[in-house]
User: Fold Dihydroxyacetone kinase family protein from Paraburkholderia azotifigens.
Amino acid sequence: MKKLLNDPSRVVREMLEGLAMLAPDTALLRDANVVVRRALPEPHARHVAIISGGGSGHEPAHAGYVGEGMLAAAVCGEVFTSPSTDAVLAAIRASAGPNGALLVVKNYTGDRLNFGLAAELARAEGIPVEVVVVADDVSLRNTVERGRRRGIAGTVFVHKIAGAAAAAGKSLAEVVAAARSAADAIGTMGVALDGCTLPATQQSSFSLADDEIELGLGIHGEKGVQRTKPMPADQLTDTLLTAIADDLQLAGGERVALLVNGLGATTPMELAVVARAAVNGLRERGLRIERAWCGTLLSALNMPGCSVSVMRVDDARLALLDAPTKVATWPGAGRVNVDGAAGIASGSAHDVATNEVRENHAGERPPLQLAFDAAARALIDEEARLTELDSKAGDGDLGSSMKRAGEAVLAIPPTAWPSASEALAELAVTLRRAIAGSSGPFYATALLRASRRLAGTGEPAAADWADGFDLAVHAISELGGAQPGERTMLDALRPAADAFANAVRRNEPLAQAWAATVDAAEKGAASTASMMPRVGRASYLGERAVGEPDGGAVAVACWLRALTPFVR
Assistant:
């Protein structure tokens, strides 16, 4: 496992030095791995100091939450290891005044012992200190009582609420009450797709097969409470929400805040999909989502996976969540746009008219549409192969793009197209919407150019189709700036169009002409394996792309062959 580190034994200190260099409002203690607010008032004028911490490896927690409106100090142990009592005491001394300090502790034995002992030592020095323990992991609800559960991502909610209460000048008792009631109102459950890797090791804390996930894990690389099969994001999120709702005994009409948290190696794309499912799932349960956040807020090194946290809220708790903070890692206001995914009209009169045509015409699919359907199914069937080819020379999205194209074509309802020209124009609209990246514009432009050529021809003859094919290929070359021989879809399209035109000019039977067309496309696609790429993403790889055929050219040969039974 490759890592961007120097000496693993110094990783925590070097990380904190880097963080402090980029956060002017913080400072790092010389003799302890403790980050404190730089601009604290003199001790007699300080509000209650909110202090949290624990083992490192959970970034941005805990040092990332030091700042006005959240933590006064963060105590950072070695990776997944509780900080020492002396480090916690140093944090209290550096940040607390006569108004005292609140220690926010996740419910792990080492943290409870070291933070608890530091609190006792500070009290002996005359500093009022209280401790709030967060135990929000609902995955353990059937095995241990709540007070013995682990503290996980819901802790970030407690940081925010306690920090806002302290910034408002509330007393230590009031801050403790706000933090403790918030901790009691939170339920969290996580899922891992694989283990994580500690800085000094080369192997993951645990390994999962491709057909396994871990439900209910903690945040230190430990295994979950159940190993099960992977499931779609919606189903997985519902599993997490069900456990949380049952544990908190949430009832319809209650108000909640939501946090979807990444564990370190989960992409924003995946987290957003989970957030969508979580919002929908809470709404389906009749709950009012007052605030929601999504991002990596308390990680487990490089673990792929996420957790979902839900917290009951009322007006007072919402006010604390909404209170201002200068902490950059707090992810904003959390306002929820629950109806924003419903979609709004684009305002295109043409698109509206097209939709109306689709809705108002039904019946059997015409022959040309049946041919399109066959090409669509062929592309869907080739998804894995096209993905593999594109992954070797591009970004790997060709298979999924062609699958989306195929599904979109199959979804076109039976439509009484009055002409071949309008059929191609309709297909251009469908593909430009369905395919992202370069393939969509290429295919749409080609189809529109061919559509214009066939306009007004009634029932096109073979020569008309040959002209349309030639113009379509020329349009792709014109749009993308590529020529045959540069390892693109044109290396299948151009020989195919030429073969068809030549066969038509020789008055060959249409089936024979089309067989020559498909053969030319397949030979052209195969020839790209030895070509040096000149355009597109593959050109960045140079000789490394040589050896496998171009995925776009292979896709062309695939759908051309699928049309064979309909060319007669």
Remarks:
- The two ends are 58 Å apart (CA to CA).
